[in-house]
Each structure stands twice: as C-alpha cells, then as structure tokens.
Amino acid sequence: MLQEIARTFFAASIFGAILAFGGVVAPTVMKYLEGDEGANFLRRLVPRYYFFLVVTGLLGAFSSWEEPAQAFGMALIAATSLFVREVMLPKLFALRDRQMESDREASAKFVRMRRRLVVLAAAQFLVAGAVLATIAW
After folding, report:
1. How far apart are CA 47 and CA 69, in angstroms?
2. What is the C-alpha separation between 33 and 24, in angstroms, rounded?
C-alpha cells in the first residue's frame, strides 16, 4: 500500500512538474521578463527542474520495483532528464550565447536543439501519464 502511494506520488509529481513548467512557467517567464532577465532566470531554473526530474524519476523507479513497466518508465524519465541536464543544456546555452552574438549557424542549431528538447519533454510527459494510467488501471 505504501509503495503504491509512493509510486503514485512520484509519477504525479513528474507529470505535474512537466505540465506546470511547459504550460505555465516557461511561457510566463518569456512573456513578462525581458531579454537577459528572462534568459538568466531560465538558465538558473532549468537545470534545477531537470535535477528534480532525475531525483523524482529515480525515486519513482525504486518505488515501482514490483511493477517493471512502471519502473522502466520512471527510470527512462530519470535517464533522459540526466542526459538533458548534463549534455544538452550546456550545448544549448552555448548556442544561445553565440546566437546572441548574431551567429547564424549557431542560431539554426539552437532552434533545432530547442525543438528536440520540446519533443523530449512531450515524450517524458506521455511516459509519466502512461505510468499514472497503469497505476490507476
């Protein structure tokens, strides 16, 4: 019983965090914080957000050990979040810096990488939703 509560809590936390960040936080920051202020805020927030997903995904995977599909989904979210935080974000931030210096090639690469990040976040959202659905089923 306690394990099911923990697994539900972690899956719902990830689902809610992705929904809140992508649907509320990021658009609000981009709309109301101008230029460097918004960019600097997101540069500080986004790594912490992905750290939260890594930790919560690992805890969710651990608490789902009796349900392999759920454990795999949570571990997948943790692994992809770690990859984003440690590999993609430094590259994305460097490309953004070069884009701000009017580097056209960097600008195109930044846009492509940002799209990949959005697709990955959508996939994580779907995985978290699927885990929640299997818990509820």
Report:
1. 27
2. 14
24-39-89-18 Cα dihedral, nearest 10 degrees: -10
Q: How far is CA 119 from CA 14, 61, 62, in A?
A: 16, 22, 26
| Helix boundaries (H) for the chain | 2-20, 26-32, 35-63, 68-83, 89-100, 104-136
The residue length of the chain stands at 137
Tokens 């995977």 belong to residue: 61
Asked if 6 and 64 touch (Cβ cutoff 8 Å), the reply is no
pLDDT in tens, 89-129: 999 999 999 998 999 999 999 999 999 999 999 999 999 99
For 74-89, give the DSSP string.
Answer: HHHHHHHHHHIIIIIH
The answer to whether the pTM exceeds 0.85 is yes
